[in-house]
Design brief:
By secondary structure, the chain is mainly alpha-helical. The protein has helices at residues 3-24, 31-34, 36-46, 49-53, 78-101, 108-127, 131-149, 156-187, 192-196, 199-204, 208-222, 231-234, 240-246, 251-266, 270-291, 297-325, 329-364, 380-394, 400-414, 423-426, 429-453, 470-488, 494-506, 525-542, 544-547, 560-582, 587-608, 623-641, 645-665, 669-692, 703-729, 737-743, 753-761, 763-785, and strands spanning 58-65, 70-76, 786-788, 794-796. The chain is built from 34 helices and four strands. Residues 129-423 form the NADH:quinone oxidoreductase/Mrp antiporter transmembrane domain.
């Protein structure tokens, strides 16, 4: 394991020790023990910047499941390094913020374990070159985010939001896996770099459109693009540190990473280009429009996040369009640089805003705009940070959001330069949509500032408002300072972070030499676009009472949220109806299903397969074997005719003991001993259980019931005999027993062949069998701890 592999796994390794530390150091906030983990990771990643910025890549491989091509291959270029720094850097600030936000009364052990698992999962997503490992970490982000969103599990909305996020994102992730497998079938590799080398083969293959659609489903669901954005607003029920981390800089950016990484691979396809561009623009406008009407502060930021993600997605679409259509290199570069720059800027101003909203909620007890106002003099530091970060989000100079928004508008206005047949008719719509979305962004940014801090002080807040303690202010202050620094001195990022990341998206080694400036001249369309945004946005805010009633025309029945809720409800009801149709509650019914299915599949196999039967190789049947079989038949007949449960159990044990005796004649003494032990234990348990069970009468067995049972029994028995003889007669491979005889003493250095087979050659089987026993033991332990109180409610017995 290399250092970079260790850095990826460090959070989940640290999570193992969190519970121990929490048990013995309860007087110290657990966050202080967690904080060094992301700090160490981001410090290590900063040491890689000189290497990556000098146009070098880092590749380290570690075998994981080499037989299926699933290796832990780490590939670090500018793009992956940018995301990794955001994940660990914002993670460190979130952990520091959570120390002040979460009290000792919370289940801090659970919270930080989930957070560390999520951190490892995100690092694994952005630093992996192997698509199977990428998918493994991808789904781990969904599982850990589910746990984080449902951290306050006693709240119904938290459970609802967690379930919705997991269902939508894991559904998309599963489809994305199908896309990865389709690519591997085309290229015969699971390496992203290896796929990049076979773009012509992908372009000519009929599976390419399917791979594109499936991968985009995964990216759009994770990055909350239209129409899959509905999970993100409901995920705001999570604690604010979770929202600041997952929904500003990490999880929602995973889809953007996948799109950016695979854009060089799929830019040849109009489907890829137009899907990214149009879905991004629709998401930008729709989410910004809906953000204006929200009353919950976190809901405003949730829709704002969706809108900003759409902005970045559309920029990646323009970049892909430039590759596809042969547009000028400048248009393509502007779009990609703007996407990377806004990715950084969004992490800074949105992370700070989430933390500030958390402070307001923490110190006032409410997130409702109707119950807030006039907090400027009470919370001056929070007010200052909100003004800076909100104006940056709105694209107002001199903050960093203004610069990336200018590049965004410039790319949108320049899109008409692309030589694309359909583009001439619709190119004017792209800058219009960009301006409309930006206008609504300015409106809700002003609403945030004025609704919280200006106007009259509201007396209805649940808590007496006050400024937050410094421990909670440090993290948003750091991000706010970065908003100012990156706005005034943007080129400190150009050669070190932005250019290497953009080169990773472009899949080029030629330096970009990006220079970001505040002034583009009076003839710049982006300048006048910004002026229009500010003027129209300010007027719309001033006269908002005249146009806000437009939101009343929406019918909740036709919303995507309602479609999700109704689909979930009817799918559950349908599943219950189908299940109730065949779940009778009788074990005999389930055995009928199993045996009938086995018999049907066996008959189909026999019809479609040329089976031969050879008797020459069969062993001679001896008298002891005949005697044992007669004993087994006699026991079976006794079971069928007896009315006593105890006699049936004893006759079953006779069958088991007879089989063990048969193993002895076959010289399989180890199997005989195992069979004897298992049969003795099962017989004892059955006798004990049935002795205490109520003596209920047997069900009425009609002729039809017996006839059906006889037919199924004969079919299963006959097909089993036929398959056994056919398998013996048709040896496709040599017996593996000779391999054990030849190698058990030399390769495994063992003296007992059976032991060596169990613990060495079949070690994984034995390991998982042991795991099954462990899980069963854990289930028994839980049942022993679980008691039912007098009210009929389950409760756990507490032990000191």
């Amino acid at each position: 394991m290399t250092l970079i592999h260790f850095a990826i796994l460090l959070p989940v390794i640290a999570a193992v020790f969190i519970g121990v530390l929490y048990r013995y150091y309860k007087d110290v906030h657990l966050g202080w023990f967690v904080l060094p983990v992301p700090v160490l990771i981001v410090a290590y990643l900063f040491t890689l910047i000189p290497t990556v910025s000098s146009n070098q890549v880092i590749f380290e491989s570690m075998q994981f499941m080499p037989r299926i091509g699933m290796n832990f291959d780490v590939y670090i270029d500018g793009l992956s390094l940018l995301f990794a720094i955001l994940i660990s850097g914002i993670g460190a600030l979130v952990v520091l913020y959570s120390i002040g936000y979460l009290s000792h009364y919370e289940k801090l052990g659970n919270f930080y374990v989930y957070l560390l698992i999520f951190m490892t999962a995100m690092l694994g997503v952005v630093l992996n070159d192997n698509v199977l490992m990428l998918y493994l970490f991808w789904e781990l982000t969904s599982i850990s985010s589910f746990l984080l969103i449902a951290f306050w599990f006693n709240r119904e909305r938290s459970i609802y939001g967690a379930q919705k996020s997991m269902l939508i994102t894991m559904f998309g992730g599963f489809l994305m896996l199908g896309g990865f497998i389709s690519l591997s079938l085309i290229t015969d590799t699971f390496s992203i770099r290896g796929m990049m080398e076979q773009i012509p083969a992908i372009q000519e293959n009929a599976l390419a459109p399917l791979a594109i659609i499936l991968i985009l489903f995964g990216a759009f669901t994770k990055s909350a693009q239209f129409p899959f954005y509905v999970w993100l607003p409901d995920a705001m029920e999570a604690p604010t540190p979770v929202s600041a981390y997952l929904h500003s800089a990490t999880m929602v950016k995973a889809g953007l990473y996948v799109v950016a990484r695979f854009t060089p691979l799929f830019a040849f396809s109009e489907l890829w280009v137009w899907a990214i561009l149009l879905i991004g623009l629709v998401t930008l406008v729709w989410a910004a429009f809906n953000a204006v009407k929200q009353d919950d502060l976190k809901a405003v930021l949730a829709f704002s996040t969706v809108s900003q993600l759409g902005l970045i997605m559309s920029l990646l679409g323009i970049g892909a369009l430039g590759v596809h259509s042969g547009a000028s290199e400048q248009v393509f570069t502007i779009a990609v640089v703007a996407a990377v720059f806004h990715l950084i800027n969004h992490a800074t101003f949105k992370g700070a805003l989430f933390m500030i909203i958390g402070i307001v909620d923490h110190e006032t007890g409410t997130r409702s705009l109707k119950r807030l106002g006039g907090l400027m003099t009470i919370m001056p530091i929070s007010f200052t940070m909100t003004v800076i970060t909100s104006l940056s989000m709105a694209g107002i100079p001199p903050f960093n959001g203004f610069l990336s928004k200018e590049l965004f508008l410039e790319a949108m206005f320049s899109i008409s330069e692309a030589d694309f047949s359909v583009l001439a008719d619709v190119s004017v719509l792209f800058p219009i949509l960009a301006i409309v979305g930006s206008i609504f962004t300015l409106v809700y940014s002003i609403i945030l500032i004025r609704g919280i801090f200006l106007g009259k002080t509201q007396p209805e807040t649940p808590k007496e408002p006050k400024e937050a303690p410094m421990l909670m202010l440090i993290s948003p202050i750091v991000l706010t300072v970065l908003v100012i620094v990156f706005g005034l001195f943007p080129n400190i990022l150009s050669g070190t972070i932005i250019d290497p990341a953009a080169m990773g998206i472009l899949n080029t080694s030629e330096p970009l030499n990006t220079e970001i400036s505040h002034w583009h001249g009076w003839d710049s369309p982006a300048l006048w676009g910004t002026v229009a945004i500010v003027v129209i946005g300010a007027l719309m805010y001033l006269f908002r009472n005249t146009w806000m009633p437009v939101y009343r025309f929406g019918n909740k029945i036709f919303t995507i949220n309602n479609l999700y809720d109704q689909g979930l409800m009817y799918s559950r009801l349908g599943a219950e109806k189908i299940t109730d149709g065949y779940m009778s509650g009788y074990i005999r019914s389930y055995l009928v299903y199993i045996f009938t299915g086995f018999a049907v599949l066996a008959v189909i196999t026999m019809i479609n397969t040329d089976m031969t039967f050879e008797w020459d190789t069969a062993s001679a049947i001896t008298i002891p074997e005949v005697a044992i079989m007669l004993i087994i038949l006699a026991a079976l007949i006794a079971i069928l005719v007896t009315a006593s449960r105890m006699v049936s159990i004893i006759m079953f044990s006779v069958i088991g003991f007879s089989l063990s005796l048969l193993f002895v004649f076959f010289r399989a003494v180890d199997l005989a001993l195992t069979q004897l032990a298992v049969e003795a234990i099962l017989t004892s348990l059955f006798l004990l259980a049935f002795f205490h069970l109520p003596k209920r009468a047997r069900h009425e067995e009609r002729k039809r019931f017996r006839l059906n049972n006889m037919i199924i029994s004969v079919a299963v028995g006959a097909t089993s005999i036929i398959f056994g003889i056919a398998a013996y007669s048709n040896r496709l491979f040599d017996s593996i027993s000779q391999f054990y005889i030849d190698n058990v003493y030399d390769l495994a250095s063992g003296g007992n062949m059976v032991n060596v087979i169990l613990v060495d050659f079949r070690g994984m089987d034995t390991l998982f069998e042991t795991l099954v026993f462990g899980l069963a033991g854990l289930g028994v332990f839980i049942l022993l701890r679980l008691r039912v109180n007098r009210k009929g409610e389950n409760e756990f017995e507490e032990h000191a």
